[in-house]
Design goal:
333 residues
């Protein structure tokens, strides 16, 4: 799901710019935020300093939080979110290290919790507005496992083998699997060079279309439950892929639905912007400033603008991955 970047702005200024269920509009730009003997600071001063688009982003973010919390507060268990954050703190080595990581993103733990709550509310909104059937989930997901033999990216790469040696090793393991397919998990744990999945007998969990490299995805989705592929070459190396039985589909269905919703919204941002517009209409949102209204409609509520932002983010992620020496395997869970 698209999440708007949080921009810090005095709440008093934002509240003056937008209000839910407002009736009579006033010239909010003349409202005073701070007064002193040397002169007053008005909303107009802040707006001219920060720019309409930045104020629009912050104003809309604050408003959206209020609307979503009001509509879905009974559907989201905030105590569960608090527990999730506590778990994440432990994974990062404790509260102090977690807070340090958040500070780099100009966030506090309280901000992070609020962000997670908003994301939970947004999921509820999309569940209301976008239809996803069990059939659609099954068509777009496949439970799978694999054994990976890595290929060196270059001569200096310490991980992996030459292409020739990696292929030969994968072919040898494939013969071993063919002799006793029931031992696939055992062999994956011992032989696979994808250490994360090897710990789980090669399991990748549920893989969603669009998550994996094309060659891997095509091979997996062609398989019937229990079938094992030939050796498949991708940019990561050589794979032996198995289609696992989806015996826990009902248990994982809600999580898979959420992932599919995010995927659909990324491909078609209009689903998200239409959901926002319906929510704004439902709460009779009244814009107090025409410039801010235009900035919101031209950026946050414009699906084409969201697509451009997504493309920019993807380019940045690709650049970061290249700088770090390449991205790892994308997994279903």
């Amino acid at each position: 799901m698209k999440t708007f970047k949080k921009v810090i702005l005095p709440v008093t200024a934002s509240a003056l710019l937008l209000s839910a269920c407002g009736s009579s509009a006033t010239d909010s730009k003349d409202d005073t935020i701070i007064s002193s003997k040397a002169g007053d600071v008005k909303v107009e001063d802040v707006m001219s300093k920060m720019g309409d688009e930045q104020i629009a982003n912050s104003s809309f973010s604050i408003l959206l939080n209020k609307l979503l919390a009001d509509k879905y507060k009974d559907d989201v268990n905030t105590k569960d979110i608090d527990k999730e954050v506590e778990k994440e703190q432990k994974q990062y080595g404790g509260k102090e290290q977690f807070e340090s990581m958040l500070k780099q993103q100009k966030m506090s733990i309280s901000d992070y919790k609020e962000q997670k709550k908003t994301q939970a509310y947004q999921k509820e909104l999309l569940n209301d507005k976008v239809d996803v059937s069990d059939k659609e989930i099954k068509e777009n997901t496949k439970k799978g496992s694999h054994i990976l033999i890595k290929v060196k990216e270059n001569k200096d790469d310490k991980e992996g083998l030459s292409d020739k040696d990696a292929k030969a090793k994968a072919e040898k393991i494939k013969k071993q699997v063919d002799k006793d397919p029931k031992k696939f998990g055992e062999i994956a744990k011992e032989k696979s060079e994808d250490k994360s999945s090897a710990k789980k007998d090669g399991s990748l969990g549920y893989v969603m279309k669009g998550q994996m490299e094309d060659k891997f995805e095509k091979a997996l989705f062609k398989l019937k439950e229990g079938e094992i592929s030939k050796v498949v070459k991708t940019d990561y190396g050589y794979h032996i892929i198995k289609a696992d039985k989806a015996n826990d589909f009902d248990k994982e269905k809600d999580k898979l639905k959420s992932q599919l919703l995010q995927s659909k919204v990324q491909k078609e941002p209009k689903l998200l912007t239409d959901s926002y517009k319906e929510l704004l209409d439902e709460y009779n949102v009244d814009y107090k400033d025409r410039d801010i209204k235009k900035a919101i409609e031209d950026s946050i509520l414009d699906p084409e603008k969201i697509k451009q932002q997504q493309q920019q983010q993807q380019q940045q992620q690709q650049q970061q991955a290249m700088q770090q020496g390449g991205a790892g395997m994308s997994t279903g869970q």
